[in-house]
Structures are given as C-alpha cells and as structure tokens.
Design a protein that fits this description.
2 domains; 6 strands; elongated
C-alpha cells in the first residue's frame, strides 16, 4: 500500500508517497533558505514543530529530499564570473570528456542531460579573461564537438518565498 509505514531492521521506512500542498510549501521555504529553523517553518506553515519535523523526516526517508546544500562565500565573491556551459559530445567520448572536465578547478559540477546537449557544466572564475581561457580549454578536449555558454548575471536568493 502506497504511503504505509514499513519497519525494516527496526527502522521506519517511508515508501514513495504523493506530496501534498503542505509538502510543496515546506520545500519551497527550504529552497529559499535551507537553514531556517523548524520553529520558523512551522510558524509560516501554520503547523506544529512536531508536524514539520515529521514531514521533513518522511520527505528525507522517502528519498524526496536527498540533501541540503551550502552556498559558499567563494562561489559568490572569489569566483564572481560564473556560467553554465552546454556541451555536445561525439560518439562514445562521454566518459573521457567527463574525466577531463573533472580535472578543471573551475568546474563546480557536471550534469548529464537529454536533448541537444550531452552535458551541462557549471563554471566559476575570478574574471572574464580566466573564463574565456577555460572555455577554450573545454573546446580542445577530444570528443567535444560543440558548446554554448551562458553567463550567470545575478542570483536573487534573498527573495522570501511566497506561499
């Protein structure tokens, strides 16, 4: 039965269940500020702290929430020039291209994707000259056939979630 609690090795496991509006609102609040206290979340949602804590645990244990992230000062200040590069790869070269990109200190993450592009790469550098240099190095990787880059201009994270 979907949504029923299951015990496994003495620990409760919560199988996949459909999220309701309250779960979605909770996730929206956390996306805007993952460090908010349970008390603040409960007040915004009109729920008790125990209810919010239980919902968070279920979302984590069901695998709906798989982790929390931190935005580092260096991401915003030390590496102010940031961008997203979409990369097209020839044939079976994906593994070798990913391995090459993994050695670039400017690469913060690599994602495989579908559609016209094979990879989406997040980059960060100290200035535009360094950004241009890393793009040139990426284009020289054997197996890279095409790329397109968009600079990230602003990250409006301080906007409070509206429910």
């Amino acid at each position: 039965m979907i949504g029923a609690d299951i015990e496994q090795n003495g620990e409760k496991i919560y199988p996949f269940r459909a999220m309701d509006d309250t779960d979605r609102k909770l996730i929206t609040l956390l996306r805007h500020d993952g460090r908010r206290s349970i008390s603040d979340l409960a007040a915004d949602l009109g729920l008790t702290r125990a209810t919010v804590r239980a919902r968070l645990e279920k979302l984590e244990q069901s695998g709906e929430i798989i982790g929390f992230t931190v935005i580092l000062r260096s991401d915003a200040i030390d590496l102010p020039v940031r961008g997203i590069t979409m990369i097209e790869i020839a044939g079976q070269a994906a593994d070798s291209v990913i391995a090459a990109l993994s050695g670039f200190s400017e690469v913060s993450s690599i994602h495989t994707t579908n559609g016209n592009w094979d990879l989406v790469v997040e980059l960060g550098t100290s200035d535009l000259i360094a950004f241009d240099q890393v793009l040139r190095r990426i284009r020289l990787i054997p197996g890279v056939t095409n790329s397109e880059t968009s600079l990230l201009l602003a990250t409006p994270r301080s906007v409070k979630a509206r429910l």
